[in-house]
Amino acid sequence: EQTLDICMIAVQQNGNALEFVNSNLHTERLCQMAISRNNEAAKFVKTNISTKDTHDSVSDSVMNAIRNIIS
């Protein structure tokens, strides 16, 4: 069973591990960690990631900002 803690450890080791993380665990913090480890991990970021403190969808502008990190 995947947990957020296990997934954080995985993406700290290899950002591309984000590809295998269940979409319901894609938090803003997890995705930022993955991208900071490997810019190519941005292609695995789900469109409707949730913030680390709530389950609200992140706005399109925040998603664009995350994607712009790699450009």
Structure description:
This protein has 71 residues and is an all-alpha fold. 41% of the residues lie in helices and 0% in strands. The chain has helices at residues 4-13, 28-37, 60-68. Helix 1 runs parallel beside helix 2. The protein is globular. The termini are far apart. The relative contact order is 0.18.
Helices and strands in order:
Layout: H1 4-13, H2 28-37, H3 60-68
Helix pairs in contact: 1-2
Number of strands: 0
Poorly predicted regions are: 53-57
N- and C-termini, Cα separation: 34 Å
What is the share of helical residues? Answer: 40-55%
Shape estimate: globular
H-E order? HHH
Number of helices: 3
Strand content: under 5%
List keywords for this structure.
71 residues, mainly alpha, 41% helix, 0% strand
How would you sum up this structure in a few lines?
With 71 residues, the chain is mainly alpha-helical. The protein has 3 helices and no strands.
